[in-house]
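Consider the tokenized backbone below.
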């Protein structure tokens, strides 16, 4: 009896030209772009974790939602996060999530997850440039600016 397996196809489709992609120059430009793309109807209701995919020139290839959770947290599967990064041939990433409560202080879970992703990224030559926490009113906290990345 002959065994059969599924064929796996991996693809990335981008319609914007590289010269028209927004360039990230600092945490403020990343936070502004992320906030402009966030669903304002849910930002104060539930926590969501996204990743901003960057090319080698720090131009944004896209933003991908990795996890959508509850009022006080969301579960991020690091394997799914890296599947997206590898599939899109991303060289750098900015981690993004919101705090519906409006607090800008990162939790211990936020810090642990960031370190886990950073360590995995080093193995795969994918730079974690920052982790931003956004609030419903548009404020943000940058792990890189605060020296905890």
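A designed sequence for it:
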């Amino acid at each position: 009896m002959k065994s059969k397996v599924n064929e796996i196809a991996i693809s990335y489709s981008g319609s914007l030209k590289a010269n028209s992609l927004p360039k990230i120059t600092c945490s403020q430009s990343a936070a502004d772009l992320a906030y402009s793309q966030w669903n304002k109807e849910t930002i104060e209701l539930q926590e969501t974790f996204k990743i901003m995919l960057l090319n080698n020139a720090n131009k944004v290839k896209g933003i991908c939602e990795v996890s959508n959770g509850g009022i006080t947290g969301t579960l991020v599967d690091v394997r799914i996060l890296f599947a997206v990064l590898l599939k899109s041939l991303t060289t750098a990433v900015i981690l993004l999530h919101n705090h519906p409560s409006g607090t800008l202080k990162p939790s211990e879970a936020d810090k642990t997850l960031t370190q886990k992703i950073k360590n995995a990224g080093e193995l795969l030559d994918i730079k974690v440039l920052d982790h931003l926490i956004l609030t419903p009113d548009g404020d943000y906290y940058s792990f890189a600016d605060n020296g905890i990345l």
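The chain has a mean pLDDT of 92.
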